Amino acid sequence: MKTNIFRIIGLGMVATASALSITGCQDFFEPESNHIIFADGDHLNNPTDTVYSMVGILQKLQAIADRSVLLGEVRGDLVDVNEYTSADLRDIALFELDDSANVYNQPRDYYAVINNCNYYITRADTALKNNRNETIFMREYAAAKTYRAWTYLQLVLAYGKVPFVTEPILLSGDLERDYPKLEVKDICERLIADLTPVADENIPLFNGLTVDSRLAYIPTKILLGDLCLWAGRYREAAQWYYRYISTRNGEQSAYTVGTGCAAWARDEKDYRNRGWNNSYTTFFLSESYGTDIELISLIPCPTGTADLNYSQLRNIFCSTNDNAYQAQLEPSDALTDLSEAQVYCNYNTANEVVYVPDDLPDGGRGDLRLNSIVLGYTTNYDNTYRQAQEIYKFSSTNVRTYRRAMVYLRMAEALNRAGYPRFAYEILADGVNDSIVRARVLPYCPTLTDSMFVQSFSFPENRYIVRCLDTKASDINTIGLHSRGSGWTEFNEHYAFPVAPEGVTDTLQYQIEKVEDMLMDEGALELAFEGQRFYDLMRVALRRNAPSYLAEKVYARRGEDRKGEMRSLIRPQLTDMRSWYMSWRGQIGY
């Protein structure tokens, strides 16, 4: 006999009106509530349903929030395990991914989100209007489609090939159906078609969350950029990211890279004092919403340690009282080596280019971002001195999904693969505005079509103000992304657009791959610990049809000289792409 499972769905899409005002340990969810939101069992047709259903979906997202970071980071090359690492995380780091008992290998949690979204999308009356003739459900309808698409992308990147379900599962017998299993490109193509018609819908707004509700929604335009990037539709990807940047603060506005950075004083004399200026860390200490804020979106999570779905990222990456000051993950040797390999370029007030010495003690060499966000210290816990670490990217109990630098980096990646490596390079080196594009990108466009495409990305000089000799410091609002940690990149002769050596026949392809390498390094320096690295490596390896690209990076996690050690520890051969993914076991059900 088939069992009706409305209650299973209902528990995910529930909240009483009072739950929205809770700001204590339960935050804005009331897990024990059995108030089911759908009034007639078939349709969502009451304005209050919109709030209840969004809160229910957010509750389900909490269950996969930590995984969205850990599965994208622990399998990469920027973090490493230690003596305190849990067995489940250690197995993931060493690619022992076939254990269905692993706490992080639970695909049903993703389908709980997807099923709630499917229910809302199927049942919402999008034609219903209020007394001001405004549609009641369209904003939430678009948000539910975006949540579903983001969850599917996380799922397929973790598992490689997954059942694709767009109708709500209401009966237990539906769990037995043979749903089509799709790989990342096929899923992305379907989701692009699904999201494009709702890309311009505004996000829902309501009060009562512990964060500004504008941060609780994934911008549809950004997600469309991601889907197009994975699908290999690079021009469209770049355009979606640009559409977000150019409209994020309204028409005729700007959303610049900003000038926050970790930087030596321009006239620094003693580079051994480690007294650099640090406005970079502030990017990770604020969860406010504003026109110039770094943070774009997050998954709001409970603040009480005993609450269901409390995020453990802080206890995994940082030394806290809750983990007896024993962090489970730490920066890898590969990340430290990459950071220290960068050449820091300074530009003093006498208009002289100065390179910071490369023989500085640990923590002062190269790019300054790593040492501005990771603090190592000694603590006395329970009468025992212990080495501890604080990673400022985990200053909150919420789990962050998108931020400004991520969007600019991915736009650069898409532009590069679309055939415009100089455009991508300028995003890294100088920052972009229309004058830079005219001078350094347009002259290299071979056709009118290329020129028209490049000019469709407009960054007006009066709104995107880069550093130059005749610019007042107080006016500057954008720099090259590499300058966030490596100084005045626009003057750095060691950081230059690649020149093809003699004998290379396809100059453009050579430049594209070299700029792509620069972009991947920049992603490591800028986005370390945020769950992006393994997927960035995967995306490049897939488009180059070179599994060894990913494999060699991961094997070098403990440094180039210890690759052999890592090969012996990682059971499967990473050149076999099947070894990259979690093993799929069981049903999609609940």
Overview of the molecule:
With about 600 residues, the protein is mostly helical. It contains 20 helices and 12 strands. The strands form 6 sheets. The chain has a two-stranded antiparallel ribbon with strand order 1-7. Strands 2-3 form a two-stranded antiparallel sheet. A two-stranded antiparallel sheet has the order 4-5. The longest helix is centred in the first third of the chain and has 27 residues, at about 45-75.
List keywords for this structure.
single chain, about 600 residues, mainly alpha, two-stranded antiparallel sheet, two-stranded antiparallel ribbon, 20 helices, 12 strands, about 10% strand, disordered N terminus
Shape: globular
- Main β-sheet, in a few words? 2 strands, antiparallel
Helix content: 25-40%
Rg calculated over all Cα atoms: 24 Å
SS element count, helices? 20
- State the secondary-structure class: mainly alpha
Low-confidence stretches: 1-41
Counting DSSP E segments of at least 2 residues, the number of strands comes to 12
Give a nutshell description of this structure.
With 590 residues, this protein is mostly helical.
SSE layout and pairing:
Elements: H1 6-12, H2 47-73, E1 79-81, H3 87-93, H4 107-123, H5 138-159, E2 161-163, E3 181-183, H6 184-195, H7 220-231, H8 234-247, E4 262-263, E5 277-278, E6 295-299, H9 313-317, E7 329-331, H10 333-341, E8 345-347, E9 353-355, H11 369-373, E10 374-381, E11 384-391, E12 399-403, H12 404-417, H13 421-429, H14 434-440, H15 448-455, H16 483-486, H17 507-527, H18 533-544, H19 547-555, H20 563-569
Antiparallel strand pairs: 1-7, 2-3, 4-5, 6-12, 8-9, 10-11
